[in-house]
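Margin note: ligand = zinc ion.
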Amino acid sequence: MEPFFLVASCILGLIIGSFLNCAAWRLYEGESMNGRSHCRSCQKLIYWYDNIPILSFLLLRGHCRHCASPISWQYPLVEAITALLFMLAYWLNPFDWLLLARNWFLLAVFVLIFVMDARWYVIVDKVTLPAAITVLGANLWLGIGWSGLLISATIGTGFFLIQYLVSRGRWIGGGDIRLGLLLGVGLGWPNILAAIFIAYGFGAVFGIAALLSGKKKWGSMVPLGTFLSVAGAITLLYGEKIVHWYLNFVNLQ
Ligand SMILES: [Zn+2]
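Resulting structure:
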């Protein structure tokens, strides 16, 4: 591991994080991905020096230069988290550049899905489907066997498809099925199982906490995509360790 590349990973993560913030809004509102950023309140263009990740938010103290309306905490938070994830991915895999590129790509996709589902309860196919195709290509290029990928894709898709059919779309949405496909081809076998378990574990903890605090009622919407993307990121980076630990644990019983 070289400090230079660690710093480069951090800077790349900040830039990608800044792009993801922008992409989340544009995908949600159906805007074009081209064109310069503008303030969400006064619509004025944002100068390049007011668009520097984290730094600009601090210098502007979280307010628009023109209309002084507050800028969401989402912006610096997403930039910081993406930078940390990119550094962690490099730190865990400093020598394999293709693997690292795939991990950065998937982590960026997970951050985007997390933000959009947490904020608006949407998982857009414009993100999940192209990402699934890209990561499938990368995994085949990395030499991951197609039979394992076929199994994990079937599990990822089938798990959510069955719930969708049984509940007639009440428990989960169609977007979750496509996210299941992305997780399947992205994480491979048997990591897809770990991701589903972890996501439902988080979901259960969050659900119970929300019920106890009185913030949610039974049957109110839970953004499953946020838990799945967090679980996806954890499994992407630590999947082998988790599966290894689990198999040891089972053997000891
Ligand atoms: Zn403004």
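The chain has two domains: 1-95, 120-253.
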